[in-house]
Fold this protein.
Amino acid sequence: MARPPRAPLLRRLLLLAAVAASCSYYLLFLQAQASVPPRYDGFAYGGGAATAWKDAVLVEAFLDPLCPDSRDSWQPLKLAVERYAPRVSLIVHPFPLPYHTYAFHACRALYIANKLNSSSTYPLLELFFKNQEKFYNSATSSLSSPSVAVEMSKMAAQTVGNSVSEFLSGFSDTKTDSAARVSFKYGCTRGVYGAPFFFVNGFLQPGGGSPIDYSTWISILDPLISQNGERIEMFTSM
């Protein structure tokens, strides 16, 4: 009895190997080509931001302001970080998903807010989470890019404390465009391909692209806080 031909299977395996090699090459190329920004990417959250990272557990979250999963992940993460602050520091990296048409606009808006009034960055992120539906693809399909920028500026102005025209001018500032691009490129260099993605002390947490609930955050952070406390106590007693 003749054996079935192996060529199709072999071709598939070779194709998969080629795709994997291409992705690895692209990642290395991107790392080499991405220019180093003048400051570390992202927005530090709350009082924990002032804590030296070497003495705290560092959580990094890659979030898309227009992503429902990012929205659902925010409150449990925020509560967990506030529970352990200042022993836990949080940095949020804006990561605009390409299939959310105006996610890049929303990420630029965060940088505009941060420039005009740094204390308004997280309130604006929460405002985007609360009003996501206004900027979904279906809701903005008949709007132009400048029109969406105007609508975002109207929403953001009161939170930031500036006029609509002042906020809107930020969309003409090449620095906010560059900052949002750096955030996206930085996420790519970390292997991020969706949102939300979480890293704890530099290590990727399982389930990328899905929210982590509060009890799971406690189970992740509590042992690290305990170990960190023991380590600090050991050094101070020497």
Q: What stands out?
A: Confidence is low (pLDDT under 50) at residues 12-32, 231-238.
